[in-house]
Amino acid sequence: MTLHRAADPDAAVVLIVPAMGLGARWYRPLLEALAAAGVHAAATETRGHEEGAPPPGRRHDHGYADLVADLDAAARLLTDEVGGPLVLLGHSLGGQVASALLAQRPDAAAGLALVASGSPYWRDWRRRPDDAAGWGAVRLLALTQGAALLARVLGHFPGHRFGFAGREAPTQTRDWARLARTGRLRFAGLDGRVRDHTAALRGLRLPVLAVTLDGDDLTPPRSTDGLLRWWAAADVERHHVSPAPGSGLSTDHLRWVRTPAVVVPVVAAWVSRVAVGPSP
């Protein structure tokens, strides 16, 4: 885990939780931009996608529980090293993992930022105004359940062959497919016990920032709505961002990270408010 430090040693720290199939190195431009904006920034390594790591498969399997445990360890390490307020920033699947950690340990962070992150629950996609017939929802359900079937047969989900994610572990793929089918963040922990994290989140009152991106077809606003329903008691702030014409900035689901100037000011301003805390 690489830490990009801001000029102020007492600044808050943002810990990025990557999207499915992305390693920490993808987030370097975002880390640099956040540090320049006045917050320390780091990104967790995604299990199975670290440099030199064995590829995910039956012999090297992991699920959401492992991703949550990895994030918990990274958050504790970063808190000890930096000392300032810690905020989690979940990108895509990273928002689901970060939410699960906070369901288990609400004091893990001072707040949660969601950028291009949502729930893959197929019924949320039926609510899209541009898809009155609901075919997008049906395609999503077929894709997610088909991915789980492929992972069972092949021992991994070959997302790289479909232009979506990378080579993904079978248990992670099944956990993701279950979420898409049921809308519930429910999976077995490392102790084997199945927990419904969706229910645990409903009473949490943490600050939550949700940033949706214009033109992001993989996480449209209705998908983010679905994830935010888990956070029924949270203090939610929402932003929908678009790049200025001719700016050269991207709001693509993945590429915004490489040109993050449209997102960083929103995140940095919110983090500064969360770090100070509510007024007495």
Fraction of residues in β-strands: 15-25%
Terminal CA distance reads 36 Å
The helix content is: 25-40%
The CATH class is identified as Alpha Beta
Unreliable spans: none
The name of the CATH topology is Rossmann fold
Give the integer mean of the pLDDT values.
93
Could you spell the SSE succession in H and E letters? Answer: EEHEHEHEHHEEHEEHEHEH
Number of strands: 11
Q: Based on the structure given, which CATH architecture is correct?
A: 3-Layer(aba) Sandwich
What does the overall shape look like? globular
Q: How much is the radius of gyration in Å?
A: 18 Å
Strand order of the largest sheet: 1-3-2-4-5-10-11
Structural class: alpha/beta
| Count of runs of 4 or more consecutive helical residues | 9
For the record, the count of structural domains works out to 1
Instruction: Describe the largest sheet.
Output: 7 strands, mixed
Please give a structural write-up.
- It comes from Nocardioides perillae.
- With 280 residues, the chain is of the alpha/beta class.
- It has a single domain, classed as Alpha/Beta hydrolase fold, catalytic domain (Rossmann fold, 3-Layer(aba) Sandwich), CATH 3.40.50.
- Helix content is 37%, strand content 16%.
- The protein is built from nine helices and eleven strands.
- It has a seven-stranded mixed β-sheet with strand order 1-3-2-4-5-10-11, sandwiched between helices. A two-stranded antiparallel ribbon has the order 6-7. Strands 8-9 form a two-stranded antiparallel ribbon.
- α8 links the parallel β10 and β11.
- The chain is globular, with a radius of gyration of 18 Å.
